[in-house]
Every structure is written in structure tokens, then in C-alpha cells.
């Protein structure tokens, strides 16, 4: 089968603890709307407070894992995708394994003996989500696990690799191993800017991986943060997308393509010094449940067509379709079968 194990994702598997909160809750824990951050001591009490809410939901999450699951759902070919990350030996870890396996993803988790499975607080206000990740076990991933023959075999087998920028905080050496393999074997290596804090505080490891990136995904806030950190005097997302696509590359096989989403505004795709804009599917406000997983779902939909070597407009269309489905549901979830043509 041509698509078996064609796409490999690597990242931080987290269990989303999702609840609708109010502005006061965000203020209390010093959380900005629509942001993604790592938990500090001041946030730790928040997880129990969320768990005590009547509307709380537990959903398998983590940015890369979401994207891989959505790609798998869109492809409808069992075992087309694989995923690697670290969980704890606990109930949450078992739930996550069950959830992903049921979704058709081939998961190879490294199981940490001591740390509990990572969680992500998803605070929903007016449909917009703010994320606070407590990585725990996800932070314990070691490149030794990746180098084991049974896991490295997944790297050898895959033709496309996707890693969210969040994994840069955990195992840059694993990213480098996969990136170098992709460049040496003319495979496609892709990453996501993921969050402003990654562009700001993990700039060095991000820069090290950048030359290997054949596709760079992100949203408008992350793109503007990236530009500011690199001293580019522009807030213009189209200009920034072009500049990112023109940064030096490790291998000349693939030209870099930058894909920036802008919420309800058109998707910006930069390639060869030119920009194309693709409109998204607009959704009436009353149909919006929450934006948690919207960007991840976009990438998942995009990847589902990319691995089939479809043109970029089909990839973007599939991305917009998948994120439109996900924002009408709680968390990064979807119906049994896609309705995408």
C-alpha cells in the first residue's frame, strides 16, 4: 500500500482539560486570550479548578498529535500515519494510546517511569481558546528512543515529517536527526512556528532547524513575532511569509513554502517570492464552539492532500475544510467520516 506510514509526526502528547471560563478566570491566572504558554507555578492550582467545573471535558491533544490524527481521518487509510512522543505510565497515558490507536494512527510512545502524562489547560472564553501546557512526561522525550531500530524504521519508512515548534523545547536533537535524514533522502520536512514564545525564547534551536524546513506553518501573530525577533521592520504578513520562504535552505531539492493562517482572513501561501491568498470557509459566530485545535486541524487537512501529491490549492482547501469542522466541535475532534471532495 502506497500510503502506509507515509507521514510521521513527533511532538508533545498532552491530555486537554477543556472548560468554558470567564474573563476573571483568565485575569486570576494571568492568561492572555488566544495565546499558548507553558505552565508556571502560579498556574498549577488552575488545573484542579478547571477539573472541578461542571462543563469540563478531557480530550487527547497536543499540537502535532492533533494534526496527525486529522490527517489520518482525512486520508481514511489505516496506518498511513505514525506519531512519536512521551507519556507517563498512568490512566491518562492509557486513554491517549487508546484514542490514537482507535483513530488509526500508529503510535510509538516513549513511556516515562516517573512523570505523569502531560496535560494542557484549555480555557475557552467566547469561543476563543487560551492554552497553558503542563508538559510533565512530554518533556522527558529522549532521542535514544527515536534511535531504537523499531522507531527509526518509522523514520526510514516515512516520506513526510511534521513537527510542531513546541517540540523544540523538549528534544531539539531528535528534530535535528529527522531533519538531516529528510534532507539527505529528499524527503519533506515541515514545522510550525506554533506560538509567539517559541519564536522569542527558543530562537536558537528554531534557527538551527529552519534550514531544513520545506514547509513552515504558522498564524499571523506568530509570523509577526518571528519578524520582530529577527529585526524585520514589517508587520505585513504577506511580506513576512515571503521572507521566511527565502531564508537559507539545507537542501535544494524542495523550495520552501510558507503557509500562514489568519483566522477568518485568507490563508497566505508564499513560494518563489510570490504570495497567493486563499479564502477560508466563513462560519457564523453562533456555530463556533471553540477554536481549540483549529490551526492543528488546518495542518492535518493540508498534509492529507500533500502526501497524495495534490496541488497546493487542494491542500489549503482541505486544511480549511478540516479546521471548519473542528471549530464547530469541542477540542480537536471530528465526525466519523470526512465529507471532503
UniProtKB/TrEMBL annotation:
GO terms for molecular function: adenosine kinase activity; ATP binding. Its cofactor is Mg(2+). Its EC number is 2.7.1.20. It comes from the Eukaryota. The active site is at residue 296. InterPro entries: Adenokinase, Carboh/pur_kinase_PfkB_CS, PfkB_dom, Ribokinase-like. One of its GO terms (cellular component) is cytosol. CDD domains: adenosine_kinase. Transmembrane segments: none annotated. Pathway: Purine metabolism; AMP biosynthesis via salvage pathway; AMP from adenosine: step 1/1. The keyword Protease does not apply. SUPFAM superfamilies: Ribokinase-like. GO terms for biological process: adenosine salvage; AMP salvage; purine nucleobase metabolic process. The keyword Ribosomal protein does not apply. Keywords: ATP-binding, Host-virus interaction, Kinase, Magnesium, Nucleotide-binding, Purine salvage, Transferase. It is an enzyme of class 2 (transferase). Residues 28-335 form the Carbohydrate kinase PfkB domain. Belongs to the carbohydrate kinase PfkB family. ATP dependent phosphorylation of adenosine and other related nucleoside analogs to monophosphate derivatives. Essential to sustain methyl recycling. This is Adenosine kinase. It comes from Rosa chinensis.
Amino acid at each position: 500500500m502506497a500510503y502506509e506510514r507515509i507521514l510521521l509526526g513527533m511532538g508533545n502528547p498532552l491530555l486537554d482539560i477543556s472548560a468554558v471560563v470567564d474573563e476573571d478566570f483568565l485575569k486570576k491566572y494571568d492568561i492572555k486570550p488566544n495565546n499558548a504558554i507553558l505552565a508556571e507555578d502560579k498556574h498549577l492550582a488552575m488545573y484542579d479548578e478547571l477539573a472541578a467545573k461542571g462543563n469540563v471535558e478531557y480530550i487527547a491533544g497536543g499540537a502535532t498529535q492533533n494534526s496527525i490524527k486529522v490527517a489520518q481521518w482525512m486520508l481514511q487509510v489505516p496506518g498511513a500515519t505514525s506519531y512519536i512522543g512521551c507519556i507517563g505510565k498512568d490512566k491518562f497515558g492509557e486513554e491517549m494510546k487508546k484514542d490514537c490507536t482507535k483513530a488509526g494512527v500508529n503510535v510509538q510512545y516513549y513511556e516515562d517511569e516517573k512523570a505523569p502524562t502531560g496535560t494542557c489547560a484549555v480555557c475557552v472564553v467566547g469561543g476563543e481558546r487560551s492554552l497553558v501546557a503542563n508538559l510533565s512526561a512530554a518533556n522527558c522525550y529522549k532521542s535514544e528512543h527515536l534511535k531504537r531500530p523499531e522507531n527509526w524504521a518509522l523514520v526510514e519508512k516515512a516520506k513526510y515529517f511534521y513537527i510542531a515548534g513546541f517540540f523544540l523545547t523538549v528534544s531539539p536533537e531528535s528534530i535535528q536527526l529527522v531533519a538531516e535524514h529528510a534532507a539527505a533522502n529528499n524527503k519533506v520536512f515541515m514545522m510550525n512556528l506554533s506560538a509567539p514564545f517559541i519564536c522569542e525564547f527558543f530562537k536558537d534551536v528554531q534557527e538551527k532547524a529552519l534550514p531544513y524546513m520545506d514547509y513552515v506553518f504558522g498564524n499571523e501573530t506568530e509570523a509577526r513575532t518571528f519578524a520582530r525577533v529577527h529585526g524585520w521592520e514589517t508587520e505585513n504578513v504577506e511580506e513576512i511569509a515571503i521572507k521566511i520562504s527565502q531564508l537559507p535552505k539545507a537542501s535544494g531539492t524542495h523550495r520552501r513554502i510558507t503557509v500562514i493562517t489568519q483566522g477568518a482572513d485568507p490563508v497566505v501561501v508564499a513560494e518563489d517570492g510570490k504570495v497567493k491568498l486563499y479564502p477560508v470557509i466563513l462560519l457564523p459566530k453562533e456555530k463556533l464552539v471553540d477554536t481549540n485545535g483549529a490551526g492543528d486541524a488546518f495542518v492535518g487537512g493540508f498534509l492529507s492532500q500533500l502526501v497524495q501529491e495534490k496541488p497546493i490549492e487542494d491542500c489549503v482547501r482541505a486544511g480549511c475544510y478540516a479546521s471548519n469542522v473542528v471549530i464547530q466541535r469541542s477540542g480537536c475532534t471530528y465526525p466519523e467520516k470526512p465529507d471532503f471532495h
